[in-house]
Write a structure and sequence with these properties.
The protein is an alpha/beta fold. The chain is built from 29 helices and 30 strands.
Length: 797
Amino acid sequence: MNLKSKTRYIQWFEDLCMNDVADVGGKNASLGELIQTLKSKGIKVPEGFATNAKAYWLYASENNLEEAIKKALSDFHSGKCSLAETGKQIRALFLNAEFPQAIADEIKSAYQELSQRYQQKNSDVAVRSSATAEDLPDASFAGQQESFLNISGEQELLEACRQCFASLFTDRAIAYREEKGFDHMKIALSVGVQKMVRSDKAGYGVMFSIDTETGFPRAVLINAAWGLGENIVKGVVTPDEYRTFKPLLDNSSLCPIIEKTLGTKEQKMIYGETQEEKTRNIPTSETERQSFVLSDQEILTLSKWAVIIENQYHRPMDIEWAKDGESQELFIVQARPETVHSQRTTKTLKSYSLKQKGTVLLSGISIGNAITTGKVCIVENSKDIEQFQEGSILVAQMTEPDWVPLMKHAKGIITDFGGRTCHAAIVSREFGIPSIVGTQNATTTLRDNQEITLSCAEGEEGYIYEGILPYEETTLDLGSIPTSPVNIMMNIADPSSALQWWDLPCQGIGLARMEFIISNLIKIHPMALVNFDHLEDSHVRAQIEHLTQRYAHKSDYFVEQLALGIAKIAASRYPQPVIVRTSDFKTNEYAALIGGAQFETPEANPMLGFRGASRYYSSRYQEGFALECKAIKWVRDIAGLTNVIVMIPFCRTLEEAHKVQAVMAENGLVKGQNGLEIYMMSEIPSNVILAEEFATLFNGFSIGSNDLTQLALGIDRESVDLAYLFDERNDAVNKMIVHIIQAAKKAGCKVGICGQAPSDYPEFAKFLVNAGIDSISLNPDSIINTIRYLADESPTQ
C-alpha cells in the first residue's frame, strides 16, 4: 500500500527536504534532504516517516490544550508557578490527551508500510522529536526534546509519539525559548519514526565536520562507543575519539587519520529483555574497553560522508551515525548545522596561560581553551540542583538537559564521564564555559567548596589544579595584520596545540619537537620496546604491558603514537612546510623514559654527550631511530602529509651527515624521494665553519640559537651563575649566524631559525631579516607582535 497521495498528517522522509523545516522541524527535514540528495553518493540513511505540524496542532486543538497551555505559561510569567511546576503541568496535558483518530490511523498505516519495507511484522523503530523551530543556525541546543528507542507495535508507537509531543515542554525547552524570545504557541512538534539500526550489537557515535574545540575547518572529529547512542549524547561513557584530515580524504590510496584515542567506554546500551524495559545499560567487557569501535576503513568512510554532507549543506555539520551489528553497515541517523564555531565572526584569538603550576588533582578531556578558578560545587543528581551556588565550578558524574539553566551560571564544569560530543561539552561550548569531561572520578576526588583551578589551555588534555593559581589571558587581534618582510613560521611541541593556532598568519611550522610526543604521549624508551623480552625490571615490563596491550608488536605502539602526533601537527598547516626534528633527548632525559635506564649510560655532561645524529647510526640506538623513521614514512606516504620535512639535530661532522642519511635511506627515507627534504640544525661551531660543505648534503639549515650561544660563549645554558652572560644577541653569536646565512645563500640552501631568541627579542628578529634569513620560527603568542614590529608598526620599536 502506498500512502503518499492519501496522507495529511505524515510525510515520508524521502519526500522531505530542507524547505520543509516549518512542517517537520530540522531533524526530519534534514533526514529527507540526506535521502533525496545523497543516497546516490553512497550515504545510507534508515527509512522512516514524520508527523507534520498539522498533526501537532490537531492533537492540541481536539484535546482543548491551547488555552490550558497559555494559562500555565501566564502563571509562570507572573511568578505563580516555578519552571518545574509549569513544565510538569503542561506535559501532563499532552500525556492525558487522546490521539485524533485520523492521525492515529495514518501513523499506524505508515508504520505497517515501514515494517513491510524491511520485511518485518512490527519493525523496531526509533521515535524522535523535531521542533519546527529547531536547529536554526543561531538556535540549536541538543537534547531539548525526548527520543525513544526500540519501539515496536502500533500502541507502543502511539504512546511514544504522545510523549514526544509532551516533550516540547520540557523544562529546558521552555527556558530556552524564553531566553531566545520564541513564542511557545507558534512552535509545533514533528515526530520522526525511523527504522532502528542495530547499533546495540555494534556501535554508535557523533561526528563533526569541523574541530569542535579550535574551529579548525579541515578536520573531521568522530566519537564512538559500543551500543546505542544515548550514552554518548548524555555523557554516560567516555568514547573513542578519532580525527581525520579532510583535504586528503579523496585519495583512496591514503589514510589521512591524524588521531585515534581509545575511550574507556565503561558501559553500553542494548535492547531490554521486557516490554517495560526497552533499553538497558550493561558493563562492557575488558576486550571492548581495550578495542576501538571503528576500523580505520570505517573511520575514513564516515569522514568522507561528513565532507559530502557538509558540501550539501554549505556549512559545518553535527552528525550522528550508527553501525548495524547484524549487517555491519554504517548509517547516518541525524544531521544538523554546527552552531558554535560556524557562527563566530570575531577576528581575535584568545589564549590563556598559567603563571605558575600547582598540584594536579585530576585530568580529562578539555572543552575550550580557557582557564578559570573557583570553588567546587558537587551536584549528584537533579534533586541537588537547588544547592548549586552561582559562580561555582559545577562537578557531576554527567549533566542532564534540565540542568541548563543552572549550567549557564557556572564558572566551569567538570564531569566524571563523557567525551567531546556529550551534553556537558555541547552546552559548555554554547555558553563559552571552560569544562573538563571524562575525568573518571571528579565527584569522589574533589570536595564541596574546595578551591581549584581548571585549565583547558594546555592542549586536548585538561587539568584540575589544587588551589587558586594566577593565570594570564591574552587577546591577539587577527585583523589588519601587515605583510611580514620574511616568512614567519611557528614552533610547536604539543600536537593538540597545533590545531589551536591554525588561524595564525604564518607560513608553516619551523620546529616540531619529536621529544614532546615521545615523553608526554608515548612515555616509553624505544629500545625498551624493541628489546622487550630482555627487560630486566619487572615493574617496567608491567608498565609497558599496560600501555601497549592493544599491540601485537610492542614497537608498533611507538610508531603509531608518534606518527599520529606528527600527522596532527602537519595537518594543521598543510600544504605549508612542517619541519619535524628527530629525537634530541640527552642521555639523562632518555633514561627518564619508561625502560630507559637499562639502555642509557650516565654522562658527566649530557648536553655535549651522546645526543642527536651520533645516536642514529649507533648500535645502541639505531633500532630506535628506525622506529622514528618508520613513523615519519607513515605520515608522508600513508597519511599523505608530504609537507613534513625531516630535521637532524646536533650533527657534528660531514661524516655523521653521510652516516645518518644512509641509515634513513635504509628505513625508506631517501632525500628527494616523494619530495622528501632533509634539513639539519645549525647549532655547533663545526656547522658554521663547514656551512658550505654541509649545504651540499642537506636541503636546508635551521639555526638553533640556544645551543649555538652555549658553544660560542662556552656557557652551560643551564648555569645559574653564568645566566647573565648567556645572550643570543652577543656579537660572536651574531657573526656566526651571518656566516651561516651567507653560506646557505651561496649554496642555494634554505636557511631559517627556530631558536628562542627572536620570540623574546623583536630587535633580534629584525637583525635576522637584515642578515637575509629566509624564515623565522616563533612561539605562537609572539607571532602577531613580531610581524607588526618587523613591519614598523610596533609601539615598542
